Design the sequence.
């Protein structure tokens, strides 16, 4: 562009550009009609013959015209930067150069009207030059108002407010933790509605339900835990759960003391060897069903720490009688007959046939042993719902029993849903399962062979196991067979290889089963066992050991995978419905 323009030519050029700025705020961002209006102003000025203006206007890119003209004027004619001076001089020039405002264009009364009106150039997908240069784009002389109509800036301000409020709130949360609200976290954690909470007032005001864990392996402890979940939910109490005792440590202590300790063997396990239940069960998920308080200490310490609370102690031997949801009235003969018939079908133990290590609650057992034909029934809601003590406590391992009978069908279905939807393994165990599944591939078959410490399975030969697999047509599906076993002499499985099976054991997946952080863990074998239960539960065909709680739980998990809201029978659920109408 020629830099030797006359003052009148410079003034015409500047006024056209200034009018463009001014109109952009009167109407909002320029529409196509305003672009035409600005081009008319340029053509009416005496600089229309300049080559650069001609070329750019012929291409039709108005933004390039304005951008180029602005920088030319700013760099060579800075004396036009005074707003008042340029306004006065341009008012005279524009009165004869610019056309009148078209009647079809609405007049905006304020900057908010212009912003909301939506007169935006839809072809403009990015910020234009007057958005990026506030010294030229936001000053307006008319009525001495300064207006900025940028949606980007408004959104930025909103985001800034949110960031400030969030940053202001974070220190308060940190301050609460520093004041010691969770000062007892080394002994317990509390989960409510899927989250861990730190609220001492809630802790003191809660009504609790808890139990003495039984003296047995993981699956015995799991059975007691599941029974406690159902009862605590029915009673609307916070469930106190206890750490898991490793199976190998239970076996070692039983051999060390040379006599049967029953449930007391759990209390002899050192706190250092106990595994927090949250490492096995997803307690955050369970807390969506009911509040959960997780204990980290051993059981003796737990009782001592809560002596200041009121306790209601319960002790009924589940091998001698049955828990029901609610006892029927004495006049409901049909309901009582149905319960007694179900008890006869279950073949409950009499006093003399109960194993020594299961003879808990001896005073209660003696009360019912005088009448050998009378099976005791205990009502959960009848006996426990009206208790006002702080803690309802099932002592002497009496929470370990295999079955409950419910007379209410809806309550039975609810209990099934609680077990299936809210009691799941912790995420690290699921991660191990996915890693191993990717190594094995699908389909595969699985088998649980328990031999070293289970009397009913020790004498079963490999041929018997092969017959069970053949009945299911396992080889017709795949030759891959995962074996969960405690048998250390793997030559015992040679007949399976000869039959055509490609055997896989836990030792083949130790990298996936034992993360580096857990290789020295005293509970390593139990973690492996839990993962193996999930592996077997996802197999195409499964064959288990008779009367093994390990195998029974695998069968339950396999049933859960296909559950669609129907009633479940034992052993797929510890809660079964008694249909009175069928009697």
Sequence:
């Amino acid at each position: 562009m020629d830099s030797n323009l006359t003052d009148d030519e410079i003034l015409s050029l500047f006024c056209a550009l200034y009018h463009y700025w001014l109109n952009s705020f009167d109407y909002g961002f320029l529409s196509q009609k305003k672009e035409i209006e600005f081009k008319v102003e340029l053509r009416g000025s005496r600089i229309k013959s300049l080559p650069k203006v001609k070329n750019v206007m012929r291409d039709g890119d108005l933004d390039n015209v304005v951008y180029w003209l602005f920088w030319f004027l700013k760099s060579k004619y800075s004396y036009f930067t005074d707003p008042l001076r340029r306004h006065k001089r341009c008012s005279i020039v524009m009165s004869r150069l610019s056309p009148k405002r078209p009647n079809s264009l609405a007049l905006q009364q304020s900057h908010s009207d212009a912003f909301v009106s939506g007169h935006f150039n839809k072809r403009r997908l990015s910020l234009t030059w007057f958005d990026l240069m506030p010294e030229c784009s936001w000053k307006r002389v008319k009525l001495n108002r300064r207006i900025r109509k940028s949606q980007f800036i408004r959104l930025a301000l909103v985001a800034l407010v949110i960031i400030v409020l969030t940053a202001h709130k974070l220190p308060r949360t940190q301050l609460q933790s520093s004041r010691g609200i969770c000062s007892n976290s080394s002994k317990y954690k509390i989960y409510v509605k899927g989250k861990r909470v730190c609220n001492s007032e809630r802790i003191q005001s809660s009504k609790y339900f808890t139990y003495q864990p039984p003296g047995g392996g993981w699956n015995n402890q799991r059975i007691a835990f599941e029974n406690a979940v159902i009862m605590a939910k029915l009673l609307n109490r916070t469930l106190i759960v206890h750490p898991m005792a490793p199976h190998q440590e239970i076996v070692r202590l039983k051999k060390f003391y040379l006599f049967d300790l029953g449930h007391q063997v759990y209390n002899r396990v050192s706190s250092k060897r106990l595994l927090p239940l949250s490492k096995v069960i997803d307690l955050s998920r369970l807390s969506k069903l009911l509040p959960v308080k997780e204990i980290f200490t051993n059981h003796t310490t737990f009782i001592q720490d809560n002596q200041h609370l009121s306790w209601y102690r319960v002790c009924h031997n589940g091998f001698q009688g049955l828990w029901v949801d609610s006892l029927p009235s004495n006049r409901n003969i049909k309901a009582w007959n149905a319960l007694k018939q179900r008890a006869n079908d279950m073949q409950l133990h009499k006093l003399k046939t109960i194993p020594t290590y299961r003879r808990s609650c001896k005073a209660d057992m003696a009360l019912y042993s005088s009448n050998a034909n009378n099976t005791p029934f205990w009502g959960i809601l009848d006996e426990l719902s009206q208790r006002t003590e702080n803690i309802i406590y099932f002592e002497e391992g009496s929470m370990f029993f295999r079955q409950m009978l419910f007379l209410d069908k809806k309550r039975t279905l609810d209990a099934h849903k609680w077990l299936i939807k809210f009691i799941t393994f912790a995420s690290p165990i699921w991660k191990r399962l996915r890693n191993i599944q990717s190594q094995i591939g699908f389909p595969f078959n699985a088998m649980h062979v328990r031999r070293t410490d289970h009397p009913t399975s020790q004498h079963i030969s490999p041929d018997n196991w092969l017959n069970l697999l053949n009945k299911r047509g396992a080889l017709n599906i795949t030759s891959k067979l995962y074996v969960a076993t405690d048998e250390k002499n793997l030559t015992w499985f040679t007949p399976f290889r000869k039959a055509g099976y490609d055997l896989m054991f836990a030792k083949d997946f130790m990298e996936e089963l034992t993360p580096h952080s857990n290789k020295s863990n005293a509970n390593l074998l139990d973690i492996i066992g839990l993962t193996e239960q999930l592996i077997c539960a996802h197999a195409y065909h499964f064959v288990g050991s008779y009367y093994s709680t390990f195998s029974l739980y695998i069968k339950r998990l396999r049933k859960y995978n296909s559950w669609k809201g129907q009633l479940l029978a034992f052993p797929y659920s510890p809660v079964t419905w008694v249909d009175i109408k069928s009697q």
About this structure: The two ends are 106 Å apart (CA to CA).
